[in-house]
């Protein structure tokens, strides 16, 4: 029903792809059947040879409008999915359209804000500063004299984007079934992730909340300025935010003319990015030069908070594992860390992945830190992941993109810039936190939960086995793939148990030292209690209580049996 309802749009998409010679996408998605006069399809496929395939992809996306432009921009942040030529080309996507007529903009604003422009603003320029596919920005002045930028969502943009998102979802499901290469990727999952990201960008209330969260995170840094949101004139379709002015971070001549210390600026801008990723776990995911202003006094001003990334505790821990592996220059450890990060459907061959990583490690093995290009090393890692069809979580891909862009920005500002000098302390703290008491306690708790679940499920499983034996015995057929969930679960449990044993030994040592020295015992008593690790007995009680409170069902392996 949905296909019939949007048949014209399917045809436009199919004809655009055909005209640019993108036959692989036509066949994979099955969209060629919606093109009229199917037998005449060949006449569309004589694309201009003056453009590369990557350029044709960009041009096709631009022709298809806002949703597809945003899709290309999102894919440009996923270098583990596409070759560098495509990433570079998609990064050039232009998100601009002709301005909405002034009369229509006035109607939208007055309907949304409940008053006339003259009553709400001291001045309002109906000629836009910029006109993009989702919305356009206007300069204005509030009644109190504050200069602001008012972003207005285009009429009809939401409705058209929802249609396109539904079509993309259907095409992703078709490609997942028809295209052999898609088996290594979760195309429906990628489509869902993209829809979620784009819907967040459409909601200006969410962007306003993001801005306020950044302002709170940098409240103690006088060198960073986050514009204020004016909620009285903000809705889901209209955003009113303080207007910042200054020099673009890549305008080196203007920065020099203003007397800005560029090496200091490079270090400070990198510290801002590092704080977002490693400390706050909430970062600006689109930090291109147009979104970063340098004010005359050297302050860094950030704008456009529609696209953000989140680094949660689990991702932070996996990032810590990767950093430890990279520091040890151990290809096998790096492979294992990347496999833990991967969200791909197929199992990872660690031996082959380790072999692929040997030349990457050789790039920086034996080199001093000052001679290591972090960006180059990351690009080589991504190249390996792409060859192995390993997919990364969106947030981690955005983090890698941020690191690469930050190093490039730093070097452009200061040729002697060394990224590791700024990021090093943050990365070290991330690794140390992985082995902190809090992390130890969390692992011990998880191990206790798993052990408790196994203990409670074992009698039930033994009774079932006894019944089967009494009735003649089972005939079991096993495939190695069916053992994977059990092996993975036992691997996790064994690691947690080892972690727990080591932790208990450490605590026992602390207790013995304290018992032997009364003065030391009094000195350590409060910190240990504050950390929640007083004695080995305390840990045992903590494990038992946490286990009872956090029951989780045991995932049994699938074993097909037939009674004899």
Main β-sheet, in a few words? 5 strands, antiparallel
Oligomer: single chain
How many H/I helical runs? 23
β-sheet strand percentage: 5-15%
In terms of per-residue confidence, which ranges show pLDDT below 50 for 5 or more consecutive residues?
A: 476-482, 523-564
Mean pLDDT, all residues: 78
Through-space gap between termini: 50 Å
In short:
Helix content is 60%, strand content 9%. It contains 23 helices and 13 strands.
Secondary-structure blueprint of this entry?
Layout: H1 2-5, H2 7-19, H3 23-29, H4 53-64, H5 66-75, H6 84-90, H7 102-113, H8 117-120, E1 121-124, E2 130-131, E3 135-142, E4 147-153, H9 157-178, H10 187-202, H11 204-217, E5 224-225, E6 238-242, E7 247-248, H12 252-257, H13 262-280, E8 282-284, E9 292-294, E10 300-302, E11 308-310, H14 313-328, H15 331-341, H16 350-364, H17 374-387, H18 394-413, H19 419-434, H20 437-470, E12 474-477, H21 480-516, H22 518-531, H23 536-549, E13 560-563
Parallel strand pairs: 5-10
Antiparallel strand pairs: 1-3, 2-3, 3-4, 4-6, 7-9, 8-11, 9-10, 12-13
Helix pairs in contact: 2-4, 4-5, 4-6, 9-10, 13-18, 13-19, 14-15, 14-19, 15-16, 16-17, 17-18, 20-21, 20-23, 21-22
State the main characteristics:
564 residues; alpha+beta; 9% strand; disordered C terminus
What can you tell me about this protein's structure?
The protein is of the alpha+beta class. The protein is built from 23 helices and 13 strands. Strands 1, 2, 3, 4 and 6 form a five-stranded antiparallel β-sheet that branches. Strands 5-10-9-7 form a four-stranded mixed β-sheet. β9 and β10 form a beta hairpin. α9 (157-178) packs antiparallel against α10 and α13 packs antiparallel against α18. It is globular, with a radius of gyration of 28 Å. The model is unreliable at 476-482 and 523-564 (pLDDT under 50).
